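Job type: complex structure
Entries:
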Amino acid sequence: MSPLPSELAYVPFVSVENMMRLVHHLGIERVLTDLADRIEADFLRWELFDKTPRVASHSDVGVIELMPTSDGEMYGFKYVNGHPKNMKDGLQTVTAFGLLADVDTGYPKLLSEMTLLTALRTAATSAMAAKHLAPKAAKTMAMIGNGAQSEFQCIAFKAICGIDTVRLYDVDPSATDRCAANLAQRGLTVVACRSAEEALEGAQIITTCTADKQYATILTDNMVGSGVHINAIGGDCPGKTELHRDILLRSEIFVEYPPQTRVEGEIQQLDPDHAVTELWQVISGQVPGRTAARQITLFDSVGFAIEDFSALSYVLAAIEGTEFFANLDMIADPDDPRDLFGMLQRARD
Ligand SMILES: NC(=O)c1ccc[n+]([C@@H]2O[C@H](COP(=O)([O-])OP(=O)(O)OC[C@H]3O[C@@H](n4cnc5c(N)ncnc54)[C@H](O)[C@@H]3O)[C@@H](O)[C@H]2O)c1
C-alpha cells in the first residue's frame, strides 16, 4: 500500500459547492462588502504588487487568459475565459479557477473555483469604485445586460453604495425576467424596462454588462446626461467595447492598470496617450475622484489580477476553521526531497 501523503502534500480546494455554502454561511451582502474592503486595502498597497497585463490567448469566438500577480509573500493567478457565444449553447460566458501560493516555498496554499468568485469580486470592485466616484446621493442604477454578472452587480451596489432601485434592460426580455425574479425580496425596487433609454431614466449610475465580441454601442452619446457615473464592465477585450467613443471624450476616465486597459477596455477607442486616472491613486487620496456635480465619471473596468489575488486571499482566510473546503493531494512531497522516483516506486510495492 502507498504511504499516506505528508501534510505538505495537501492543498485546500474550494469547489463550486463549497463556495456556495461559504457565501450562504456568511451572507452575500457581507461577502461583497468584505471583498470590497479587501480589494480596497490591496489597492492601497498597489505599488508593491508585481503587475503585468494578463496573458491572453484569442480565438475567433473568445479568449482564454492567465492573470498573475504577487505581493512578495503570496503569489496568485487566475485562469479565466470569455466566450460570448457560449450562453446560446447553454454554457457560461465566463468560467474561472485560481490558485494562491507561498512565495517562500512556491508551495500552493489554495486552489479555488473562481466562476462565482469572479462575479463576486467584479461586483465588489465596481461598487468600491463607485463609492469613490459616483454622485453621493445616487439611489438608482440602470443595469444594462442582465446575464450572469447582473444580480451580483445590483446586490453589491445596494450593499456598498446604498442603491435602492435598479432599472433592468437586456435585448433578451427573458434575461431581464430572470434577473428581476432573482432580485425579489432583496430590499431593491426592481423595474424591468423595454429599452436602454427607458432603463436610464432617473439613473445616477449606469452599469453596462453585456457580452458581444464586437465594437458594440450599448450607450450612444445622446443617452448619457451630465453628472452620472458609468460602470462599464463588458468592454474587456480587444475589439469588444460597449460605449460610443463620444461618451469617452466627455468623461473623466478611471482605470485599473493602464497597460492592460488601453488594450482591452473602452479606451482602446482613444489615442494611446489619452489622459486616464488610475483608481488606486483616487483610493489612496493622491488624486481626486469626482470633482464636479456635472462631471461624467467612467470606470472602464476590465478586471485586474490584484482583484483576484484579494478575492483568493479573502477565501483562504474565510475557510479557516470551517468545513467549506476539501484537502487535495496535490503536491508530491517525498520524505527525502531528492527521492521522487523512490516515492513512485514504493507506491507500486
Ligand atoms: N470587467 C470585469 O472585470 C469583468 C468580469 C466578468 C465579466 N466581464 C464581462 O461582463 C460581460 C457580461 O458577462 P456575463 O457573464 O454576465 O455574460 P452573459 O453572457 O451571461 O450576459 C450578457 C447579457 O448581455 C445581453 N446583451 C447582449 N447584447 C446586448 C445589448 N446590445 N443590449 C442589452 N443587453 C445585451 C445578453 O442578452 C446577455 O443576457 C461580458 O462581456 C464579460 O466578458 C467583465
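Summary: Residues 7-116+306-348 form a domain with the ornithine cyclodeaminase, domain 1 fold (CATH 3.30.1780.10). Residues 54 and 208 are 22 Å apart (CA to CA).
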